[in-house]
Amino acid sequence: MGVVKVLEPNSLPLSVLDQSFVRAGDGAQVALAETLQIAGLCEALGYRRFWVSEHHDTTILAGSSPEVLLAAIGAATRTIRIGSGGIMLPHYSPYKVAENFSLLANLYPGRVDLGVGRAPGADMDTAIALATDGRPKFERFPELVEQLGHYLWAGNTKPRVSPAPPRDLPIWMLGSSPDSAALAADTGLPYNVALFINPQADPGMIALYRQRFQSSALWPEPHAMITVTALCADTEERALALKKAADVNYITFVTRGPHIDYIDPEQAREYEFNPQELAFLARYEHSRAIGTQEQVRAKIEALARYHDANEVMLVSNSYHLADRIRSFQLVAEAFGLEKPTVN
Question: Is 39 within the bounds of a domain?
Fold first, then answer.
Protein backbone atom coordinates (compact mmCIF):
# COMPACT_ATOMS: atom_id res chain seq x y z
CA MET A 1 0.00 0.00 0.00
CA GLY A 2 1.45 3.33 -1.06
CA VAL A 3 1.93 6.52 0.88
CA VAL A 4 -1.22 8.64 0.97
CA LYS A 5 -0.83 12.15 -0.36
CA VAL A 6 -2.85 14.61 1.72
CA LEU A 7 -4.12 17.49 -0.38
CA GLU A 8 -5.03 20.98 0.77
CA PRO A 9 -8.24 21.21 2.84
CA ASN A 10 -11.41 21.97 0.90
CA SER A 11 -14.56 23.69 2.13
CA LEU A 12 -16.91 21.35 0.22
CA PRO A 13 -18.80 19.24 2.81
CA LEU A 14 -18.90 15.52 2.10
CA SER A 15 -21.41 12.97 3.37
CA VAL A 16 -22.19 9.27 2.90
CA LEU A 17 -25.24 7.27 1.83
CA ASP A 18 -25.02 3.63 2.94
CA GLN A 19 -27.32 0.93 1.54
CA SER A 20 -26.41 -2.03 3.81
CA PHE A 21 -25.04 -4.09 0.93
CA VAL A 22 -25.46 -7.87 1.41
CA ARG A 23 -22.71 -10.17 0.12
CA ALA A 24 -23.61 -13.69 -1.00
CA GLY A 25 -23.20 -16.11 1.89
CA ASP A 26 -22.99 -13.45 4.61
CA GLY A 27 -26.59 -12.36 5.08
CA ALA A 28 -28.26 -9.28 6.52
CA GLN A 29 -26.68 -9.50 9.97
CA VAL A 30 -23.20 -9.00 8.53
CA ALA A 31 -24.41 -6.21 6.23
CA LEU A 32 -26.05 -4.29 9.07
CA ALA A 33 -23.02 -4.73 11.33
CA GLU A 34 -20.89 -3.29 8.52
CA THR A 35 -23.26 -0.31 8.21
CA LEU A 36 -22.68 0.47 11.89
CA GLN A 37 -18.93 0.08 11.44
CA ILE A 38 -18.89 2.39 8.41
CA ALA A 39 -20.97 4.98 10.31
CA GLY A 40 -18.40 5.11 13.10
CA LEU A 41 -15.57 5.31 10.58
CA CYS A 42 -17.21 8.17 8.64
CA GLU A 43 -17.78 10.08 11.86
CA ALA A 44 -14.12 9.67 12.84
CA LEU A 45 -12.98 10.78 9.38
CA GLY A 46 -15.00 14.01 9.41
CA TYR A 47 -17.90 13.34 7.04
CA ARG A 48 -20.88 15.60 7.75
CA ARG A 49 -23.82 13.21 7.37
CA PHE A 50 -24.46 9.48 7.30
CA TRP A 51 -27.74 8.49 5.66
CA VAL A 52 -29.33 5.11 4.99
CA SER A 53 -31.74 4.12 2.23
CA GLU A 54 -35.07 2.28 2.07
CA HIS A 55 -35.44 -0.78 -0.17
CA HIS A 56 -37.89 -3.67 -0.08
CA ASP A 57 -38.19 -7.21 -1.48
CA THR A 58 -34.50 -7.63 -2.28
CA THR A 59 -31.73 -10.02 -1.28
CA ILE A 60 -28.90 -7.57 -1.90
CA LEU A 61 -29.80 -4.60 0.35
CA ALA A 62 -30.75 -5.05 4.01
CA GLY A 63 -32.05 -1.55 4.78
CA SER A 64 -35.85 -1.88 4.62
CA SER A 65 -36.57 0.30 7.68
CA PRO A 66 -34.40 3.44 7.91
CA GLU A 67 -35.93 4.67 11.16
CA VAL A 68 -35.05 1.43 12.97
CA LEU A 69 -31.53 1.36 11.56
CA LEU A 70 -30.99 5.04 12.42
CA ALA A 71 -31.76 4.32 16.07
CA ALA A 72 -28.86 1.86 16.12
CA ILE A 73 -26.56 4.21 14.17
CA GLY A 74 -27.32 7.08 16.52
CA ALA A 75 -26.37 4.92 19.51
CA ALA A 76 -23.12 3.87 17.80
CA THR A 77 -22.03 7.45 16.98
CA ARG A 78 -21.79 10.78 18.81
CA THR A 79 -21.41 13.73 16.46
CA ILE A 80 -22.21 12.91 12.82
CA ARG A 81 -25.64 13.84 11.46
CA ILE A 82 -27.74 10.77 10.66
CA GLY A 83 -30.66 10.59 8.29
CA SER A 84 -32.89 8.79 5.83
CA GLY A 85 -32.06 8.75 2.17
CA GLY A 86 -34.94 8.38 2.27
CA ILE A 87 -38.34 7.52 3.67
CA MET A 88 -40.64 6.63 0.75
CA LEU A 89 -43.50 8.78 1.97
CA PRO A 90 -46.33 7.53 -0.32
CA HIS A 91 -46.27 4.23 1.59
CA TYR A 92 -46.90 5.75 5.01
CA SER A 93 -48.90 8.02 7.27
CA PRO A 94 -47.18 11.42 7.60
CA TYR A 95 -48.26 11.49 11.24
CA LYS A 96 -46.48 8.22 12.00
CA VAL A 97 -43.35 9.30 10.10
CA ALA A 98 -43.39 12.53 12.15
CA GLU A 99 -43.57 10.53 15.37
CA ASN A 100 -40.77 8.16 14.33
CA PHE A 101 -38.39 10.98 13.48
CA SER A 102 -39.43 13.14 16.40
CA LEU A 103 -38.45 10.25 18.65
CA LEU A 104 -35.11 9.90 16.85
CA ALA A 105 -34.50 13.66 17.09
CA ASN A 106 -35.19 13.58 20.82
CA LEU A 107 -32.80 10.67 21.25
CA TYR A 108 -30.08 12.39 19.20
CA PRO A 109 -30.69 16.16 19.41
CA GLY A 110 -29.39 18.27 16.56
CA ARG A 111 -28.24 15.26 14.56
CA VAL A 112 -31.25 13.91 12.62
CA ASP A 113 -32.20 14.59 8.96
CA LEU A 114 -35.51 13.38 7.56
CA GLY A 115 -35.10 12.77 3.84
CA VAL A 116 -38.27 11.85 1.95
CA GLY A 117 -38.88 10.65 -1.59
CA ARG A 118 -41.68 9.67 -3.94
CA ALA A 119 -40.15 6.50 -5.44
CA PRO A 120 -41.54 3.10 -4.38
CA GLY A 121 -38.17 1.60 -3.39
CA ALA A 122 -39.38 -1.67 -4.94
CA ASP A 123 -41.76 -2.97 -7.60
CA MET A 124 -45.45 -2.11 -7.64
CA ASP A 125 -46.53 -5.40 -6.06
CA THR A 126 -44.41 -4.52 -3.03
CA ALA A 127 -45.72 -0.95 -3.03
CA ILE A 128 -49.26 -2.30 -2.88
CA ALA A 129 -48.30 -4.61 -0.01
CA LEU A 130 -46.77 -1.69 1.91
CA ALA A 131 -49.91 0.45 1.56
CA THR A 132 -52.37 -0.25 4.37
CA ASP A 133 -55.32 -0.04 1.97
CA GLY A 134 -53.48 -1.57 -0.99
CA ARG A 135 -53.31 1.81 -2.76
CA PRO A 136 -49.90 3.56 -2.90
CA LYS A 137 -50.34 7.32 -2.77
CA PHE A 138 -47.72 8.51 -5.25
CA GLU A 139 -50.03 11.15 -6.74
CA ARG A 140 -50.56 12.63 -3.26
CA PHE A 141 -46.85 13.08 -2.53
CA PRO A 142 -46.94 16.93 -2.40
CA GLU A 143 -49.90 16.77 -0.01
CA LEU A 144 -48.13 14.18 2.17
CA VAL A 145 -45.02 16.39 2.36
CA GLU A 146 -47.19 19.33 3.43
CA GLN A 147 -48.86 17.21 6.13
CA LEU A 148 -45.50 15.98 7.39
CA GLY A 149 -44.21 19.54 7.69
CA HIS A 150 -47.36 20.56 9.52
CA TYR A 151 -46.95 17.81 12.12
CA LEU A 152 -43.28 18.62 12.68
CA TRP A 153 -43.33 22.41 12.71
CA ALA A 154 -46.83 23.79 13.38
CA GLY A 155 -46.85 23.02 17.11
CA ASN A 156 -49.87 21.88 19.11
CA THR A 157 -51.28 19.91 16.19
CA LYS A 158 -54.34 17.74 16.55
CA PRO A 159 -53.39 15.01 17.14
CA ARG A 160 -50.14 16.11 18.74
CA VAL A 161 -46.90 14.46 17.73
CA SER A 162 -45.49 12.54 20.68
CA PRO A 163 -42.82 13.17 21.76
CA ALA A 164 -42.89 16.80 20.68
CA PRO A 165 -40.52 17.31 17.74
CA PRO A 166 -37.55 19.65 18.10
CA ARG A 167 -38.16 22.72 15.96
CA ASP A 168 -34.81 22.24 14.17
CA LEU A 169 -35.65 18.81 12.67
CA PRO A 170 -35.23 19.31 8.89
CA ILE A 171 -37.07 17.62 6.04
CA TRP A 172 -34.93 17.02 2.96
CA MET A 173 -36.51 16.56 -0.47
CA LEU A 174 -34.90 13.72 -2.41
CA GLY A 175 -35.38 13.35 -6.14
CA SER A 176 -34.02 13.00 -9.63
CA SER A 177 -36.51 15.00 -11.70
CA PRO A 178 -37.64 18.63 -12.23
CA ASP A 179 -40.87 17.84 -10.35
CA SER A 180 -38.95 17.14 -7.13
CA ALA A 181 -36.83 20.25 -7.67
CA ALA A 182 -39.93 22.43 -8.00
CA LEU A 183 -41.58 20.86 -4.95
CA ALA A 184 -38.46 21.37 -2.82
CA ALA A 185 -38.27 25.00 -3.91
CA ASP A 186 -41.96 25.75 -3.36
CA THR A 187 -41.89 24.24 0.15
CA GLY A 188 -38.58 25.81 1.21
CA LEU A 189 -36.75 22.51 1.74
CA PRO A 190 -33.13 21.50 1.10
CA TYR A 191 -32.79 19.34 -2.00
CA ASN A 192 -30.75 16.20 -2.73
CA VAL A 193 -30.37 15.16 -6.39
CA ALA A 194 -29.74 11.41 -6.81
CA LEU A 195 -27.21 11.45 -9.65
CA PHE A 196 -26.26 7.85 -8.91
CA ILE A 197 -29.83 6.88 -9.83
CA ASN A 198 -30.45 9.32 -12.68
CA PRO A 199 -27.15 10.21 -14.38
CA GLN A 200 -29.07 12.23 -16.97
CA ALA A 201 -30.11 14.81 -14.36
CA ASP A 202 -28.64 18.10 -15.54
CA PRO A 203 -27.72 21.36 -13.78
CA GLY A 204 -31.08 22.77 -14.81
CA MET A 205 -32.72 20.90 -11.95
CA ILE A 206 -30.76 22.69 -9.23
CA ALA A 207 -30.97 25.93 -11.21
CA LEU A 208 -34.78 25.57 -11.22
CA TYR A 209 -34.70 24.83 -7.50
CA ARG A 210 -32.64 27.94 -6.75
CA GLN A 211 -34.78 30.18 -8.97
CA ARG A 212 -38.09 29.08 -7.43
CA PHE A 213 -36.94 28.72 -3.83
CA GLN A 214 -39.28 30.14 -1.18
CA SER A 215 -37.59 30.93 2.13
CA SER A 216 -38.66 28.89 5.15
CA ALA A 217 -37.98 29.09 8.87
CA LEU A 218 -35.24 26.45 8.78
CA TRP A 219 -33.87 27.33 5.34
CA PRO A 220 -33.82 31.04 4.45
CA GLU A 221 -31.60 30.20 1.48
CA PRO A 222 -31.65 27.26 -0.97
CA HIS A 223 -29.36 24.36 -0.15
CA ALA A 224 -28.60 21.67 -2.74
CA MET A 225 -26.71 18.40 -2.48
CA ILE A 226 -25.85 15.79 -5.11
CA THR A 227 -25.38 12.09 -4.41
CA VAL A 228 -22.81 10.34 -6.60
CA THR A 229 -21.06 7.00 -6.83
CA ALA A 230 -17.46 7.27 -5.59
CA LEU A 231 -14.90 4.45 -5.69
CA CYS A 232 -11.44 5.53 -4.58
CA ALA A 233 -8.41 3.24 -4.35
CA ASP A 234 -4.65 3.45 -3.83
CA THR A 235 -4.06 2.62 -7.49
CA GLU A 236 -5.98 3.31 -10.67
CA GLU A 237 -5.84 -0.41 -11.47
CA ARG A 238 -7.69 -1.30 -8.26
CA ALA A 239 -10.23 1.47 -8.79
CA LEU A 240 -10.98 0.17 -12.28
CA ALA A 241 -11.42 -3.34 -10.87
CA LEU A 242 -13.96 -1.98 -8.37
CA LYS A 243 -15.68 -0.13 -11.20
CA LYS A 244 -15.96 -3.23 -13.37
CA ALA A 245 -17.46 -5.28 -10.54
CA ALA A 246 -19.96 -2.52 -9.84
CA ASP A 247 -20.85 -2.36 -13.54
CA VAL A 248 -21.32 -6.13 -13.85
CA ASN A 249 -23.48 -6.21 -10.74
CA TYR A 250 -25.61 -3.29 -11.91
CA ILE A 251 -26.17 -4.90 -15.30
CA THR A 252 -27.19 -8.10 -13.52
CA PHE A 253 -29.57 -6.19 -11.25
CA VAL A 254 -31.19 -4.38 -14.18
CA THR A 255 -31.62 -7.52 -16.29
CA ARG A 256 -32.45 -10.10 -13.60
CA GLY A 257 -34.02 -8.13 -10.77
CA PRO A 258 -33.25 -7.65 -7.06
CA HIS A 259 -33.02 -11.33 -6.08
CA ILE A 260 -29.46 -11.99 -7.18
CA ASP A 261 -26.00 -12.60 -5.75
CA TYR A 262 -23.43 -9.89 -6.43
CA ILE A 263 -19.98 -10.94 -7.58
CA ASP A 264 -16.64 -9.62 -6.37
CA PRO A 265 -13.94 -7.82 -8.39
CA GLU A 266 -11.97 -11.03 -8.82
CA GLN A 267 -14.96 -12.81 -10.37
CA ALA A 268 -15.85 -9.78 -12.52
CA ARG A 269 -12.41 -9.68 -14.14
CA GLU A 270 -13.33 -12.21 -16.84
CA TYR A 271 -16.73 -10.71 -17.73
CA GLU A 272 -17.05 -9.32 -21.25
CA PHE A 273 -19.68 -6.62 -21.83
CA ASN A 274 -21.70 -6.72 -25.01
CA PRO A 275 -22.26 -3.53 -27.06
CA GLN A 276 -25.70 -2.91 -25.57
CA GLU A 277 -24.34 -3.17 -22.03
CA LEU A 278 -21.47 -0.81 -22.82
CA ALA A 279 -23.90 1.73 -24.28
CA PHE A 280 -26.07 1.49 -21.18
CA LEU A 281 -23.13 1.94 -18.79
CA ALA A 282 -21.76 4.87 -20.79
CA ARG A 283 -24.68 6.98 -19.53
CA TYR A 284 -23.22 6.81 -16.02
CA GLU A 285 -19.59 7.65 -16.79
CA HIS A 286 -19.79 11.43 -16.40
CA SER A 287 -21.63 11.30 -13.05
CA ARG A 288 -19.28 8.98 -11.13
CA ALA A 289 -16.01 9.65 -9.30
CA ILE A 290 -13.70 6.65 -9.72
CA GLY A 291 -9.93 6.44 -9.47
CA THR A 292 -7.07 7.54 -7.23
CA GLN A 293 -7.25 10.29 -4.61
CA GLU A 294 -6.39 13.03 -7.04
CA GLN A 295 -8.77 11.75 -9.72
CA VAL A 296 -11.69 11.33 -7.34
CA ARG A 297 -11.23 14.70 -5.69
CA ALA A 298 -11.04 16.42 -9.08
CA LYS A 299 -14.20 14.68 -10.29
CA ILE A 300 -16.19 15.40 -7.12
CA GLU A 301 -15.22 19.07 -7.25
CA ALA A 302 -16.10 19.24 -10.96
CA LEU A 303 -19.52 17.67 -10.38
CA ALA A 304 -20.23 20.05 -7.49
CA ARG A 305 -19.36 23.04 -9.69
CA TYR A 306 -21.29 21.71 -12.68
CA HIS A 307 -24.47 21.20 -10.67
CA ASP A 308 -23.96 24.20 -8.34
CA ALA A 309 -24.19 21.95 -5.27
CA ASN A 310 -23.51 23.03 -1.69
CA GLU A 311 -22.66 19.49 -0.60
CA VAL A 312 -21.78 16.10 -2.10
CA MET A 313 -22.95 12.74 -0.76
CA LEU A 314 -21.06 9.57 -1.70
CA VAL A 315 -22.31 6.04 -2.39
CA SER A 316 -19.51 3.45 -2.33
CA ASN A 317 -21.01 -0.01 -2.71
CA SER A 318 -17.80 -1.97 -3.21
CA TYR A 319 -18.17 -5.72 -2.69
CA HIS A 320 -15.48 -6.02 -0.02
CA LEU A 321 -15.76 -4.03 3.21
CA ALA A 322 -12.02 -3.30 3.11
CA ASP A 323 -12.45 -1.52 -0.24
CA ARG A 324 -15.30 0.61 1.13
CA ILE A 325 -13.26 1.54 4.19
CA ARG A 326 -10.22 2.42 2.11
CA SER A 327 -12.30 4.50 -0.29
CA PHE A 328 -13.75 6.62 2.49
CA GLN A 329 -10.33 7.02 4.10
CA LEU A 330 -8.69 8.15 0.86
CA VAL A 331 -11.43 10.63 0.01
CA ALA A 332 -11.39 12.11 3.50
CA GLU A 333 -7.62 12.55 3.29
CA ALA A 334 -7.81 13.97 -0.23
CA PHE A 335 -10.24 16.67 0.91
CA GLY A 336 -8.56 17.29 4.27
CA LEU A 337 -11.79 16.66 6.18
CA GLU A 338 -11.69 17.92 9.75
CA LYS A 339 -12.19 15.26 12.36
CA PRO A 340 -14.91 16.02 14.94
CA THR A 341 -14.17 17.31 18.42
CA VAL A 342 -16.15 15.51 21.11
CA ASN A 343 -16.62 17.26 24.45
Answer: yes
Query: Within 10 A of 342 (CB to CB), how many other CB atoms are there?
Result: 7
Asked if the structure places residue 342 within a domain, the reply is no
Q: Residue 140: inside a domain, yes or no? A: yes
Q: What is the pLDDT of residues 124-155, one digit of tens each?
A: 888 888 887 888 888 999 999 999 999 999 98
Please state, in angstroms and rounded to a whole number, the distance separating the CA atoms of residues 17 and 14.
10
Instruction: Report pTM.
Output: 0.93
Rounded CA-CA distance 104/71 in Å is 7
CB atoms near residue 66 (< 10 Å) = 27
Look at residue 250 and tell me if it is in a domain: yes
> For residue 114, what are the domain limits?
14-335
Residue 28 sits at φ, ψ, to 5 deg, of -65, -35
Q: In a 3-state reduction of DSSP, which class is residue 178?
A: helix
Number of compact structural domains in the chain:
1
Taking alpha carbons only, the member of 70, 80, 86, 84 closest to residue 35 is 70
Tell me which DSSP letter residue 7 carries. Answer: P
Alpha-carbon span 58 to 22, nearest angstrom: 10
